[in-house]
Design a protein that fits this description.
- The chain is α+β, with helices and mostly antiparallel strands.
- Helices cover about 30% and strands about 25% of the residues.
- Strands 3-2-1-4-5 form a five-stranded antiparallel β-sheet. A three-stranded mixed β-sheet has the order 7-6-8, with no helix packed on it.
- It is elongated.
Length: about 280
C-alpha cells in the first residue's frame, strides 16, 4: 500500500511538470506565429545588411583614437535575434607619430590596446564612457614578430551586443625570449576576424520542466530590506516522513492484527456439529 501511494504521488508530479512544459511551449509557438518576418516581393527573407563597428587603439591606455573599422553583414534571425557574419578589419592609414609610439611599446615590452563599443552592433552612445567599451590587448613585441598580422574576435549575444573582445596574433603564440625589433615605420599588414556566439546546452533527454521555473531548493527569498530571508528549517516529520509512514503501518498491524482464518473455521465446525445433534 505504501509503495502504491508513493507511485501515485510520483505520477501526479510528473503529469503536472509535463503539462506546464507543454503550456510554455504552446505560448512560445503562439508568440512566434504573431511575429511577422520581413520579406521582399518574392516572399524570400530579408537580405543581409551591411554594418560597421569602429575600433580604437591606445598606446598608453588613456588616450584613444580610431584605428580601424570592422565591417560585417547582419541578418535577423528568429523573433528578436540578430546574426552577424563575414567580419572584416579595415585599418586606417598610419603615420609617423603612431609608428614612433608603437616602437616605444616594443622597446618597453608594453601592451598594445584596442577597444570596440559594447552597444548593439557596435552602436556608440552619445557621451559614452569607458564602461561602454570592451577592451583587449596584446604585447606589442608579439605583433612586431608576427609581421604586424592581427586577429580580432567579437563575442556577441543573440540581439547583437558585443559582450567581449579577443585580440591576438594569428598563431596566438608569442615566445617570452623574443628580442625587440626596431623599425622606422610600423603598419599593419594582414588582419583576420570572426564572430562567436554563446551556445545553449541542450536539455537532458526525458526532462519535462518549464525553462523559467525556479528551483525551490536554490531560490532565495528577499525581504523588505532587500536582504535574503533565512529559510525555516524542516521539521523532523518533514525530513523523515517516508520512513515514519511505513513504520506506523507496521505498528498498527502488530497492535490490531486482522482476525485469523483458523479461528473462524473452528467456529463454523462447532456450529455445524450442534446442528447435526439437533437433527438426530
Amino acid at each position: 500500500l505504501v509503495l502504491l501511494l508513493l507511485a501515485l504521488s510520483a505520477l501526479g508530479a510528473y503529469a503536472q511538470d509535463f503539462s506546464e512544459a507543454d503550456n510554455s511551449q504552446a505560448s512560445a509557438v503562439d508568440a512566434f506565429d504573431e511575429f511577422e518576418v520581413d520579406t521582399d516581393a518574392s516572399g524570400a527573407s530579408a537580405a543581409f545588411t551591411e554594418v560597421s563597428v569602429p575600433m580604437q587603439h591606445s598606446f598608453d591606455g588613456k588616450k584613444w583614437e580610431e584605428a580601424a573599422t570592422l565591417t560585417a553583414q547582419k541578418q535577423r534571425e528568429g523573433i528578436s535575434g540578430v546574426r552577424v557574419s563575414r567580419l572584416r578589419v579595415r585599418r586606417n592609414a598610419g603615420n609617423a607619430q603612431s609608428s614612433k609610439a608603437f616602437q616605444a611599446l616594443v622597446d618597453n615590452d608594453a601592451m598594445y590596446r584596442v577597444r570596440v563599443p559594447s552597444g548593439v552592433l557596435g552602436e556608440v552612445k552619445e557621451g559614452a564612457s569607458a564602461d561602454d567599451y570592451v577592451v583587449a590587448f596584446v604585447k606589442a613585441r608579439c605583433l612586431a614578430h608576427a609581421g604586424m598580422s592581427e586577429h580580432v574576435t567579437l563575442h556577441m549575444d543573440s540581439v547583437g551586443r558585443v559582450v567581449a573582445l579577443a585580440y591576438r596574433t594569428p598563431s596566438g603564440q608569442c615566445a617570452p625570449d623574443l628580442a625587440p625589433l626596431k623599425q622606422d615605420t610600423w603598419s599593419f599588414a594582414r588582419a583576420t576576424a570572426n564572430v562567436q556566439y554563446a551556445r545553449v546546452a541542450p536539455g537532458l533527454k526525458g526532462m519535462h520542466v518549464a525553462p523559467d521555473r525556479p528551483d525551490s531548493e536554490t531560490s532565495t527569498t528577499l525581504g523588505p530590506d532587500g536582504q535574503p530571508v533565512a529559510k525555516k528549517p524542516k521539521t523532523f516529520f518533514q525530513r523523515n516522513w517516508m520512513f515514519i509512514m511505513p513504520a506506523m503501518f507496521i505498528i498498527m498491524n502488530i497492535i490490531n492484527p486482522p482476525p485469523q482464518q483458523q479461528q473462524g473455521g473452528g467456529q463454523r465446525k462447532a456450529a455445524a456439529g450442534g446442528a447435526a445433534k439437533k437433527s438426530s
